[in-house]
Amino acid sequence: MRILITGAAGFIGSHTAAYFAEQGHDVIGLDSFSDYYDPALKRLNQEDIEKAGVRFVEIDLNDDLGSHLPGDIDYIFHFAAQPGISATTPLEDYVNNNIYATQNFLDWAKEYSPDLKLFVNIATSSIYGKEATLPETAVPTPISYYGTTKLAAEQLVLGEHRTGKIKACSLRLYSVYGPRERPEKLYTKLIKSIIEDTEFPLFEGSEKHSRSFTYVGDIVKGMAAVIGKEEVLGGEIVNIGSDKEYTTKEGIELIEKIIGKPAKIKRTPPRPGDQLRTTALIDKARKLLGYEPETEFEEGLKAQVEWYKQKFC
User: Fold this and answer.
1) Per-residue pLDDT tens over the stretch 262-296
2) How many Cβ atoms from other residues are within 10 Å of residue 306's Cβ?
3) Could you state, in order of their start, the residue ranges of all structural domains in the chain?
4) 87 pLDDT higher than 80
5) From the candidates 146, 177, 187, 291, which is the catalytic residue?
6) Pairing state of beta strands 118-124 and 168-173?
7) How far apart are CA 310 and CA 31, in angstroms?
8) Residue 146: active-site member
């Protein structure tokens, strides 16, 4: 199979690309190496997964894609996006990188891969809004630029499916953590602060927020389960995550336990657009994909701490 993965030097995209390459597939990874965070960190991911056999193309999905990319793709996994809930990232960036880039890439896919088996859009639980505790049939009520533009991107992809131009589905991921997690995300930032003995900024009230923290390896299993399921997945939205819930406070305490040292917590004002609770309802994923998350929370956090120490200590 020829599989194309956008955002392949990022956190989840890199794990997915490496997995498919190791399974013997022809994997092409795309990434723009944007400066949302230090591009050098993405280069480290690139080096790791090129060893697995992934071929890289450095390109912005808003550019003229034309024949710069290999065609005749069997499966596309579209991870590339303007990520996160950031007060310093303007709406324009979210619109350009989540909406316009998605449509430009869809137009390329339709022209250069007419026999594409499935376009897999990677969405987010942020689409649901403050309380992401709902089934896929619920009306989305996003409260952030990120969630709103990711919903728009999802609908662009599914709109192409509804008009019969491309076969597509969308997977909504829940609070993914593990090795290669982005530097501004909770656990990488927490591990760094404890090891370096610096203050860890914690948004006021967020220690009570609960999440379906999902280990990246379990997310990759969900991606792998898509292959060969295009007939049942066409037009579908599917939640992918852990059905176990933990508070941010519980996660912090586990990291402190694993490292053997307390965090120096510094309270900061609440973050606008943050979710209060997420619970992944994954009955549909179980039914359509045979999906079952297996990694215990502490086990996954231990793997993330070990990765950080190996890479940065």
Assistant:
1) 999 999 888 787 898 999 999 999 999 999 999 99
2) 12
3) 2-174+215-243+284-289, 186-210+244-279+296-312
4) no
5) 146
6) parallel
7) 24
8) yes
